[in-house]
Amino acid sequence: MSDAVVPHKTEVSAPRARSSSGGWFKRAIESDLFYSFRRSRLTMVAAVVTALFFLLAILASLVAVQNPFDPAQLQLMNSRIPPLWTADGQSPFLLGTDEQGRDVLSAILYGMRISLVVGVLGVVFSGALGIMLGLIAGYFGGAVDSLIMRIADVQLTFPAILIALLVNGVVKSVFGNRLDAMSMLAVLVVAIGLSFWVQYARTVRGSVLVEKNKDYVAAAQLIGLPAPVIMLRHVLPNTTGPILVIATINLALAIITEATLSFLGSGMPDTMPSLGTLIRIGNNYLFSGEWWIVAFPGIALAALILSINLLGDWLRDALNPKLR
């Protein structure tokens, strides 16, 4: 009698726990937002252009042939040199030089860094202020809500650039010419932030009025959570979609506002120019034949604003549940 053959028992291993990094990455790839992004070639191009601008601004000190903010690297003998591909062009000035001998490409890279810093910080400041006031107005209601919303309504009657000019003028009247370049940058951030907080406040207030009547807020109140915890931990995450759209669109508006202030002479000084300052300087030489001094900073500013606006339009449509 032969021995019975016992089939080999396959060991069943425990399912592997997926890593948190792989999990969120896979969810991001499979999300509707990423699918909508892949379907729009224009949005992908805009994202690449925006990322390229940010990367060039961050690496400006490595990419630029000179530091346009360092007077020791500037030579007046190199002033008003045309772009490299023209008959009178000289290396290494690819886009030519301005009246101070600054390489236009280097000035654009460094100026773009300042414009992006002012725009990003202005959006962060206005977003933080608007979100805080919107949460307070929507959650508490009553007289607090009426006061905040009436202030917002009054500010909406004035253009954002006028608010920024007013704040800028008040600061300059108090401190005069004692402000250095970094202090002027901080003034621009505050001026732009005070110009755009209303959109955040009104949007967050509307979302909070809807969310605060739901069961999870009542349960949080029942267990005794304080109001700031309920607003920040439970109510605010449900309003991130509209906030993200507003922040993206306001980034372009903040950069335009900074460029407008600098063009009007109320922004960054000539010693540390932003894109708006470069356009103002180049505008003085437009009719004398040195067109490249104003043309290339203007093109860079227009391309940056267009790419950010395209991203904002796509994000608004992608996060709109009615369009899904």
Structure explained in plain terms:
The chain is an all-alpha fold and 324 residues long. The chain has a single domain (36-323), classed as MetI-like (MetI-like fold, Orthogonal Bundle), CATH 1.10.3720. Helix content is 67%, strand content 0%. The chain has 13 helices and no strands. The chain has helices at 20-30, 32-39, 41-58, 60-63, 104-140, 142-156, 160-175, 181-211, 215-222, 227-235, 240-263, 275-283, 292-318. Helix 3 (41-58) packs across helix 13 (292-318) and helix 5 packs parallel to helix 13. The longest helix is centred in the middle third of the chain and has 37 residues, at 104-140.
Describe the protein's topology.
Elements: H1 20-30, H2 32-39, H3 41-58, H4 60-63, H5 104-140, H6 142-156, H7 160-175, H8 181-211, H9 215-222, H10 227-235, H11 240-263, H12 275-283, H13 292-318
Keywords: Cell membrane, Membrane, Transmembrane, Transmembrane helix, Transport
Pfam families: BPD_transp_1 (PF00528), OppC_N (PF12911)
Membrane topology: Multi-pass membrane protein
Structural key phrases:
324 residues; mainly alpha; MetI-like fold; 0% strand; elongated
Q: Please report which band the strand proportion falls in: under 5%, 5-15%, 15-25%, 25-35%, 35-45% or over 45%.
A: under 5%
Structural domain count: 1
Q: Kindly state the percentage of residues in helix.
A: 55-70%
The CATH superfamily name is MetI-like
CATH class: Mainly Alpha
Q: Which structural class do the helices and strands define? A: mainly alpha
Number of helices: 13
Q: What would the principal axes of the Cα set say about the shape? A: elongated
Give the biggest beta sheet.
none
Elements, N to C (H/E): HHHHHHHHHHHHH
Low-confidence stretches: 5-26
Proper CATH architecture: Orthogonal Bundle
**What value does the Rg take, in angstroms?**
27 Å
Main location: membrane
Protein name: Peptide/nickel transport system permease protein
Family: Belongs to the binding-protein-dependent transport system permease family.
Subcellular location: Cell membrane
